[in-house]
Amino acid sequence: MQIARALITRLITTLVTLLGAAVIVFVVIRVVPGNPIAMMLPPGATDADIDRLKALYGLDKSILEQFWIWIGNVVQGDFGMSITLRQPVYDLVIGRLPATLELSILALLIAVFLGGAAALTATLYRGTKIEGGIDVAGGVALSLPDFLWGLALILVLGVLWPLFHISGRVSPSLGFEFGSNFYLFEALARLQFNVVGDLIAHMLMPALALAIPLAAIILQLLKQSLKECMHDDYITLARTKGYSESSIILRDALPNAILPTLTLIGVQFTFLIGGTVIIERLFSYEGLGNMAIDAVINRDLPLIQGIVLVFALLFTLVNLVVDMTYAALNPRLRHA
Amino acid sequence: MTVSRRTLLKSAAVSGMLTAVGTPVFANDIEELVIAYNVNLPSWDPTVGPSAVNPTIQGIYQSVFDMFIHQNPDLSFASGILTDWGWNEDKSKVWMDVREGVTWHNGDPLTPEDIVWSLERAGSSDTGNPIQFIWGKIGNFSIDGNRVTADVKEYEPTIFKWMSFLTGYVMPKKYYEEVGADGFEAAPIGTGPYMVDKFERNAFVRLKANENYWGGAPEFKTVTIKFVTDASSRTFEVMSGNAHVTLEMPYEEFDRLKEQDGIVGTATPISDIGMIFINDIEPMNDPNVRKAMAHAIDKKTIIERLLSNYGVPIDTLQTPDYTAYDPSITVPYDPEKAKELLAASGYGPDNPVSFKIQTTRGFKPKDYEIIQAIVGLWRKIGIEAEIEVYEIAKHYELRAADTLAPAAFYNWGNAIGDPTTSTGFAMFGPSPHSVWDGEDLMQKILPLWGEVDEDKRIAGWKEVDRFIADNALVIPLIQYVQPILHSDKVKVTPHASGALLPALMTRS
User: Fold this and answer.
1) Secretion signal: which residues (chain B) (predicted)?
2) The pTM is what?
């Protein structure tokens, strides 16, 4: 009952957050200088042409009027038409979201694997040169922004040893017809491993670029938590029982140390999704972030609104999932 | 060309790293030509929406669709879908002869009805064609055999030139009416040298050769155009051998990479210029200030130092390729004269005239740096200009509202090379693109819009350009050069409009 009530409260909060985001983005993109009509004026256009185009795209009305029309349509599932792409915003956003989600999830998995493995190794070999080496690597990983990692990866794995693709999501010559926009999940489900290989060859570098800084953060926090746990009484007890150090770290220390890391991963995952904007651009990856940049450059107002709403929804959902997972893993919160 | 600060920083970082890296890997023979293109293709209909007036996308459109009138790489016009065209004696009608034996990509024959439908659709205010104000000047079409005739509703001397310019594409009447706008977007067909084989939005388009093309089948049977909007990634694509051709990168990168084994650089001037708009507000109403600004700019040195010599200094809004280019109109670099002019108005280094100059940063090659250099040159003679950086979208909005700063940097493309689409629309007061509203200039331009004598019309525009140069009503700076990097196994013929056309590429 308590969980249901908490969920309902959370959903209401989510709706209010989305409405707030919608109002802010709607007003801000109309107030800042630059409008889509001015962007599409050809040489020789007259004032009458400007008025005609404004009326065509509904920009001749007041901001309040435009907002009520838009929000009324959104409630009915109509997010409007993209000015530049001339397609329904809903279709465009839903079409691109899977690409960004797959990339983000792969990046998260890589980050958790790399950061987790490094933290466990550093804890196991604490006080040795190995820990020092891991700390240095973590520091380097954290000090460079994701797009520089992207460039370095392109240079090494795309140009010097051309193992992976520099741009795109799938090879034009692949000749495989996808039934959904979740290419990777679909290829895995259909056991098309050559397709999976091609997709991974496109996704690995951008995913790694996104994952490396996050892996460093996970490493630092998890290692610190593990180190603190290693001084607790139950660890001493386990040692006296004769368990090996690696077994103690994995079976006793890790379940207790992972909770703060989990919260951090949730928060950082939203940043990681935000980071896809630049990384998708760099790797010409056909995701939501790449489309967002074009939408902003072209002042495609309906598309910007749709993308921001989806990002806002994504962030609130991620936070919701993190909170629920945290509650599920932490008995004190579950019964609170 | 979009060169952001981020791009430059990345390029600098990458340049250092690349020094230690080996040479690129290229396939021995090219079966499928791969081009790393610098923009995405938002829509397949080349006649409506913002992408219809985006000059960079035209290269993709021209691969699939034919324009009414063909344009050669040197901007001259040639017979294409229309084999011949002209006016009647009193210029109250236009006529166009349609090429016979042309087929659409689906096998249907191209007919004069397609031409009429395309022109009527372009001239209708309901379709959202941004050039409707030009196409709407002819109407009441009739067909006799393969000849199309139309009444001239309003005389437009450049109507046939526009048939090689933005939105001047022949569209398939029967097919479009069958499949509708959405169906056409999903499966577009044209009469161009390439057919759309596969299109992944924002990722790539795969083209296959139109073996029945009226101008002869293109050499490369399959072409993949990858949309790679980041300049660094585009150069990496060519270096790694993943792409054979790319365009638009910082000139420093271009110079460095074209020296590498297997890579060739092609750089040619295109129909795009950089200029400083002058708004007729204080202190620009003082002709001495304007003229001093113009004479104090050393364009040649700026091009040498900032653009690695890739650029052509210009003194009017016409480049040497344009119809109304007049080499006798010059505005020489003369700082002493500039000082005298300022002194005549009571200004000098100790009592400088002050104003704001707006510029983009990274929208065109070294735009901000060029303005910085110009401001430095102005400071020496007694002009104190404060630089304001703005986004290109803001520039468009301010220009349309006639509220630009006293001086503002911008670029201007004109792929048909006619003076109406350069000096005309940029300087005619009532145009939303013009910020100089002087009555004397307006009166000089006004009669030229409807001038039926072509020689007189061009001579008239040259006089207008001379008047503008003499009075420094705008400050033309440079004609841009387009850098193209490609594999040495491909021969690339650049097009002066800036369109990168795979049909003009052959094996070397």
Assistant:
1) 1-27
2) 0.81
